[in-house]
Amino acid sequence: MIVHLRRSITFALICMVFFGFVYAFAGTGVAQLLFKFQANGSLTANGSTLIGQNWTSPKFFHGRPDDSGPYAANAKTHTSGGDNPLLANGVSGQSGATNLGPRSRVLLADTKALVAYWHSMGVNPTPDLVTTSGSGYDPDISPQDALVQIPMVAKATGLSASSLTSLIKSQTHGPQFGFLGASYIDVLQLNEALAKMR
Amino acid sequence: MTFFLTLLALVVTLGLTWRYLGSYMAAVFDGRVHFLAFVERLVYRLLGTNPEQEQTWKRYAGAVVVFSGVSLLFTYAILRLQTWLPMNPQHLGNVGSALSFNTAASFVTNTNWQNYGGETTMSYFSQIGALTVQQFVSPAVGIAVAMVVVRGFARKGSSTIGNFWVDITRCLFYILLPIAFVFGIIFVGEGAVMTLAGTATIHDVLNQVTQTIARGPIAFMEAIKQLGTNGGGFLNANSATTFENPTGFTNFLSIYLLLAIPFALTYTFGKMVGSVRHGVALLSVMVLLFSVWVGFTSYGEHQNNPAVAAAGIHSTVGNTVGKEVRFGDTSSALFGVASTMTSTGSADAAYDSFTPIGGMGLMTGMMLGEVTPGGTGSGLYTLLIYAIIAVFIGGLMIGRTPEYLGKKIQAREVKLAGLAALVMPIVVLVVTAIAVSVAAGRAGPLNAGPHGFSEILYALTSQGNNNGSAFGGLTGNTPFYNIIGAIDMLLGRFAIMIPVLALGGALAAKNVVPESLGTFRTDNGMFVGLTIGVILIIGGLTFFPAVSLGPIVEQLSHGRFF
What we know:
A: mainly alpha; 2 domains; two-stranded antiparallel sheet; B: two-stranded antiparallel sheet; 64% helix
């Protein structure tokens, strides 16, 4: 018993040093050496390409209606304002989904309100545009989600529908290696390209 | 179409892994791999153990329990003290006592149930020094215990079954560490974050939004989280977040990693007992059940979400609620099944928002006892329990003393196997009954109606099976759920592990009976079918009444919302 205890404590310490700190520090070192951009969060001038943002102006394509919370890491510095005009669930500063069940009245009411919101913007919404994501900050929309927003963006910016269609096409990423995952468009990159067109 | 290519790619990569990782693991545990011998020797010297000296099952079990207890205390202490420890750029406070206990029990039992949001609760020191460490150690303990049972079948008349310190050291250094490190690098290359620099603040001039973005040493934790069937992510939304699981490729790699060791261990088993055919039989049990669950869960998720359909939106891309665009419906369902059937419990979508059929797929995947393919090590040893019960039932049918791999399965073995098989259903159903009977338990669910019950049942099934996935709407960070959950997890781990170790010891001591014409074959289709039957009867019948009050009612209540 005492032998077990002595060995257990020694082994727990060895593991903490080796599989905790040596592993994480060596990993960080290699990551920063080989993939500095990705390792630091794919940060570009206007934000991370991997973190969804709040787009409210009709001059831009909107992302999915995720809640306001998950952007911030720190509840104190968190600034509100997600894509969701309803400001649904979520703990500020934390990633997360709404977790509403498939037969939830709240989900039904939220979805109805989102459909009405999109109609008021002159958009006939797709399922992605009226539902929230798993992370609470999905940075992507599907090509179809972007196409249905063309009337809104065209009206607000004066750009032609055909030029917006070709912009969407140029920003579409297919499934990875042709078969892994689904087609998507990074909303931040799409809007940066859109801003250049104006 | 792309989904079928994804499945095909998974079959090919896992097939190769099964064969080659399987035989490599057999070589590691037989002591034929030496490339880190200098590290091994150093560890043994620090521990003061002689690697040649083997333990009886009782000493082995003692080491497992004492080491797990020490790990639990270490983890608890770090969480309770994190304010005063370094590497806390967000100045997070100490974790509360009930939550620390739950989290420590969770990571030590390979469950990784999380009643907290990582980015707003855990300092980098806690994530690295407490949680990532257990993500290496707890699967290694599971694999070591599985090796005891394997040796039980492989050995004749032996009073010892290996040395715990040697098994766990070899597993950690030769298997988990190299694979996790390589995949960690790939995850970073795809976009997963790996930095110690704290949060980043960004101002977007186009839409005037300022964001504070949580970062951390995520990517390498991600690799061992999946490989060790742990499932506890750095961030609250787990693998749904881009910083943990940035692309379709990393999503595929995650699914691959969490299935790799549990499947491959059946080859290791076959190799070590001298009959790969027996390994193939166990693999067939796992693959057949797994495929059925992938089938109907993906089907479920490819349907419309009832609430979204009722709001007038009809989807051709399945249920999009709580799913990420870059993964899509079927890949998210595949991830969900792989994660729940391996006791991993990571999530690339909100399982709470799955359709009733999809959610039932995930929940019942765990209720089968985590054997298809189950967790690292725990999947194999639990499946061997079911195999022993199947042999026993088969033996009763034909009126012969049951044997498995030449070992007579007698009263002691059947009792131990029965005990190990019954612990999980009893624990899960009893704690669920307690939770729905008291106000503190009923206060947990976010959703109303049958889905609220599903959230409670899912949570306690997940913890009792050491899975760790959740219907995330449940508010788990309360004293009631923290403590009952911790008890659920500890019993679900150790009340199975100890009978399993005793079984390994009992089997190792036996001599081998020569095979005769009348021996019940345990490497053919008949045996595979019998074992599947046992799993479905124990898991299916025990939980059917509970499941019918949750997802089944929900599915059948057409047009009603709660």
